[in-house]
Design a protein that fits this description.
about 250 residues, mainly alpha, flat
């Protein structure tokens, strides 16, 4: 009898934790949402393949970027800078700084997913904007793991497949500028970025970054204005921190 009461108490505790976390989502709903994100974003790999081939990269180089780098913003930044005449070092530096954000996603996801140590190095390849967004939106660890795995797998497969198709079809399309496909990279990146810019501070950072990038474009070598635009975040945060200190001293 005591054992029955103990088990019942554990069930009630587990149920209260589930309720506190916002309820347990059905696996099918998580899979549906994750596939929606994976398919929608994965199809934009075609634009990357065309843009990369139009920038002068070979088929092997284009596919290797998607297979090994697998972060769209960094890939578009790299080929865009190369197409603009930047040196490979400057282009790679800009892509690297854009990709650094994934390391911060990893810090949060490592706690949320709590994957076995042997799996973590492989899972790290899928730590990007989309998998982080889907995983962090889930109420439980189980649904977060499902969301991460389905989003990562579907997006990785589709992104690489459409990259290959885009690179192969670049010759048939011809001049990407005539079709406006040279703007596909920035358009996709802005579409992914815009929903994340919510607070006033984030809007100021984004606006200042645009001003720095465009303002320095005529006077700095290609690829360098992108690096300079990254200074917007520390500058805005420094000004904000200084204002808060002044307000604190005034009180």
């Amino acid at each position: 009898m005591a054992g029955f009461r103990e088990r019942a108490r554990h069930r009630r505790y587990a149920q209260s934790r589930t309720d506190a976390d916002g309820g347990d989502r059905p696996d099918a709903a998580v899979v549906r949402d994750a596939l929606g994100v994976g398919v929608a974003v994965g199809l934009s790999g075609f634009a990357f393949g065309v843009t990369s081939a139009g920038s002068g990269l070979t088929l092997t180089q284009t596919c290797a970027l998607s297979l090994l780098v697998f972060t769209g913003a960094s890939q578009f930044a790299l080929v865009g800078a190369l197409a603009g005449g930047a040196s490979p070092l400057a282009a790679a530096a800009g892509a690297f700084f854009l990709g650094v954000r994934n390391a911060f996603y990893g810090l949060r996801l490592s706690q949320l997913l709590a994957l076995p140590r042997l799996i973590r190095p492989f899972a790290a390849q899928w730590v990007i904007d989309e998998t982080a967004a889907v995983s962090l939106a889930q109420p439980t660890r189980r649904s977060a793991r499902i969301g991460f795995a389905v989003t990562g797998l579907s997006l990785y497969v589709l992104w690489n497949l459409t990259t290959l198709l885009g690179a192969l079809g670049a010759d048939a399309i011809g001049d990407t500028r005539a079709w406006g496909l040279d703007a596909a990279g920035p358009a996709v990146f802005l579409a992914l970025l815009a929903p994340m810019v919510k607070s006033g501070t984030e809007r100021v950072v984004a606006g200042l970054a645009v001003l720095l990038g465009l303002g320095l474009l005529p006077v700095l070598p290609a690829g360098v204005p992108v690096l300079a635009a990254a200074l917007a975040a520390p500058l805005v945060l420094w000004v904000r921190g200084r204002r808060e200190r002044v307000r604190g001293e005034g009180r």
